[in-house]
Each structure stands twice: as C-alpha cells, then as structure tokens.
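Curious: explain these tokens?
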Amino acid sequence: MTKFRPCIDLHSGQVKQIVGGTLSETASELKTNHTSELSASHFARLYKEHALRGAHVIMLGPGNEVAAQETLTAWPDGLQIGGGITADNARLWVERGAEKVIVTSYLFPEARFSLDRLNAVLDALDHDTEKLVIDLSCRRADGKWVVAMNKWQTLTDMEVNRGMRSFEFFRGSDVAHGLLETIRQLEPYCSEILIHAADNEGLQKGIDEELVTRLGEWCTKPVTYAGGGRHLEDLELVDKLSNGKVDLTIGSALDIFGGSGVKFVDCVKWNQQRESR
C-alpha cells in the first residue's frame, strides 16, 4: 500500500524546495519555491513525532553537513541521508545516526555506471544491503527515463527500466552501444530505490504517471517516487497506478514547505489509515 514519505532538502544549509531541473553550478539559474525559516532538525522532530520513518534528507551541494547532522541527532536511526555519499563516508553517516544512506552520483564516474563503486559502498557498510538506498533519479530523453547525476544536470549511461541483462554485459565493450538496464540488476544490492522525476520536481504540475505505473510493475523492493505531487489525491493515484507498490514524496505543494495544495496533517492521516487496515 502506498504511503506518504516526507523529505528534507538541504541547500546552502537551509531547508528549501527547489525546481529540480534548475539545480546547477550557476546560482542565477536556480529557482526556489520555498526557503524555510525553520531548522532542519525541526522537520526531523516533526517526522519523528508522527512516526514517518523513511524520510530522505538530501544534501544538494556543499555547505549542508552541519544541518544534515542536526537532523540525525534529532532522530537517530529514523532518517535516510543522501547527497555526496561515497565509499569513503557511507559508514560515517550511518555511525552519525542515519538509518540508511542514499547513493547516486558516486556510482557514475564520468557518467558511466561502475559496479566496482557499488561494491565499494557495500564493503564500507559491511555488506549490509539494508543500509543502502540506490537513487535512480532520472530525466526523460528520447522516450526513455535516463538516470541523471550532478544535481540532475548530467545524463548517465543507465536507463531506468525492468532490466534483463547481467552485469557481465555492463563490463563488456558492448556497454558503449546502448543504455544499461537496471532495476532487477540493482535490487540485490540495496534495500530500497529512490527516484526523483527531475523534470517534474518542484513544478507541482502532476506526477509522471507512466513512470509510476512502470515502477509498480518493475520493482520488487520498496521504491519511493518524488516529483510533481500537488494534491492529497496524488497518494490515491500512485496507489492505484502502482498497485500500492510505490510510495510518494510530496514537497513543494506541502503546507509545511509553503505550499497550498496539501496539508501535512492529511498526509499523516493517510498513513495512519493505511497502517490500521
């Protein structure tokens, strides 16, 4: 059954809601929907109060580690942390209090998937796949969903799909001739998958219904979708499209982030009603 999954997006040490496709190295291109006057730890305590386990804390660029640590101090072992996670710091963030770490760009040196780097992250976590979430946030390109890295500005060689081929194919020379296939190959390496539809993120113009439908068909591990949620009814829609297999993050439309489309208390009630069934 579909649940509401909250988020804490950090940019320059503040909690913000940003139009995902505008994230870049150029500050003038950034479009911000909301900058909160409240601390990151405030939202961590709020989520803890309502038992909203599985919220993701994303560090969007540098200058966010202090705020991220504050969230983990407020709710130890209750939050997932992502943004700049590597084999060198994955274990450190778990020791600091993260329930799980979320990894994306590190897996794609020069925008090409590296199984060696994925294994290195797992080595750092003592091969505990329950501690790892793989972020396959993506953008549309030529009718496909392609994993995007570096604040969603760089397309990689990996397509988001069910996946059929083995990683032996990934290692071979044929890799240069087409996009890699993903979901079923990556699921054994992690406990969850997170997907931001970057072209929808922060726009409040509706979810990518086709992608949500496909994720419900492709994924056997828990998966969270973010991007475009604007009404409480979107939870019902995602539940229907995915057969209850995909959870939904709502950001910019949420009243606690300055939005007017969705009330946080209604999302909490949604989860409570599902859990009581």
